[in-house]
Design goal:
Blueprint: H1 22-50, H2 74-88, H3 96-112, E1 115-123, E2 126-134, E3 143-148, H4 158-175, E4 184-189, H5 202-218, E5 222-225, E6 234-238, H6 245-256, E7 261-265, H7 272-277, E8 282-286, H8 305-320, H9 324-331
Parallel strand pairs: 3-4, 3-5, 5-8, 6-7
Antiparallel strand pairs: 1-2, 2-4, 6-8
Helix pairs in contact: 2-4, 3-4, 4-8, 6-8
Bound molecules: zinc ion (ZN).
Zinc ion binds at residues 160, 193, 294.
């Protein structure tokens, strides 16, 4: 606006050389408002067009195609891994470092435009937390993409599990403002690893417990992305407890996207466990055991970025096709 005097005009009736008339002031304000509206409109229009629940979104049961998603960025995902595993480092549950990890994740998700809720719980004589992100206007019980933030003592947890959190954060970025945001929610779980009280999967168990009977009935499914950037090939499966429909669908979508993935019934060893035990269809994405597991050498340097990228592309292929029909199919199990 500097250097543009067009909005300051002289009222010839009053001969006033400096103060604009009320009518001209009003016109100036109207022009200014119009300019501001048109500036903001460029960014606002796509948001409105993709906002869940608005007229342009596919109606319930309609065959409206989900939005295309941007590409998964390996660089952005690796930045998250470095922030968690290198800058913050060891993130033992219910410690200040786990809390710092949670704060990092929450800030990123808020920056993307999600509503973020911190779910706190007591464990090992301290407080741990889940970071839960929901798109404004999304369905009450959407599909969950989850990954645990904590690591074991002395391990910076690059592969276990900054890698899974990085995939989750990058998928959240791809989905923001898109039609799929109505059907998916993102959770970074605390306290997945064993602690001094001998329990594991504490954060995901707290989440499932607090859902209540109605939430557990309506939650369509979840995937736990856990240790996905070391070893080959990528494993997709369940703990062998709950319905397999999510893991099977994920396998199909990933293979259609030419991802090298095998199906396996694994162990009750990740955050899918509590969901499966509650009868909710859940999947586990994992790239298998590796030499740096739970050791100080689980560092960024020992992680394979292209394996992380492979998993990211696979989760993207699944989330891209999420719609009301798929949610309904998962709920029938
Ligand atoms: Zn672990």
């Amino acid at each position: 606006m500097a250097g543009d005097n067009s909005s300051i005009t002289i009222d010839p009736m009053k001969g006033d050389k400096s103060v604009p008339s009320p009518r001209l002031r009003l016109m100036s304000i109207a022009i200014l408002v119009a300019i501001l509206a048109s500036c903001g409109g460029e960014t606002r229009i796509p948001v409105a067009a993709h906002a869940p629940g608005v007229a342009t979104a596919p109606a319930a049961g309609s065959p409206g195609a989900p939005d295309p998603l941007p590409s998964f960025s390996q660089d952005r995902a690796m930045n998250h891994v470095r922030a968690l595993a290198r800058r913050i480092g060891v993130r033992v549950r219910a410690t200040g470092r786990e809390r710092r990890g949670a704060r990092y994740v929450a800030n990123k998700l808020r920056g993307f435009g999600y509503n973020v809720y911190i779910q706190r719980f007591d464990v090992d004589g301290g407080t741990s937390r889940n970071v839960i992100a929901r798109w404004p206007g999304s369905m009450r019980y959407p599909f969950i993409v989850g990954a645990h933030m904590d690591s074991v003592r002395r391990s910076p947890g690059a592969n276990d599990n900054a890698s899974g959190v990085a995939v989750m954060l990058e998928i959240a970025r791809l989905v923001k403002n898109r039609s799929q945001a109505e059907f998916v929610k993102f959770i970074a779980f605390g306290s997945e690893e064993y602690g001094t009280d001998g329990r594991h999967h504490v954060g995901s168990q707290v989440f499932v417990n607090r859902l209540g009977p109605r939430g557990r009935r309506l939650l369509p499914g979840m995937v736990s992305v856990d240790m996905i950037a070391d070893g080959r090939p990528l494993i997709d499966g369940t703990a062998g407890i709950g319905p397999r429909v999510v893991a099977r669908t994920m396998l199909r979508k990933m293979r259609a996207a030419h991802i090298n993935v095998v199906y396996r019934t694994t162990c009750d060893c990740s955050d899918n466990g509590p969901f499966e035990r509650a009868g909710i269809p859940a999947a586990f994405l994992w790239s298998g055991t590796e030499p740096n597991y739970h050791s100080p050498s689980d560092t960024v340097r020992n992680l394979r970025p292209d394996d992380l990228f492979r998993t990211g592309r696979g989760v993207r292929a699944f989330v891209r096709d999420l719609d009301r029909a798929m949610i309904a199919r998962f709920r029938r199990h």
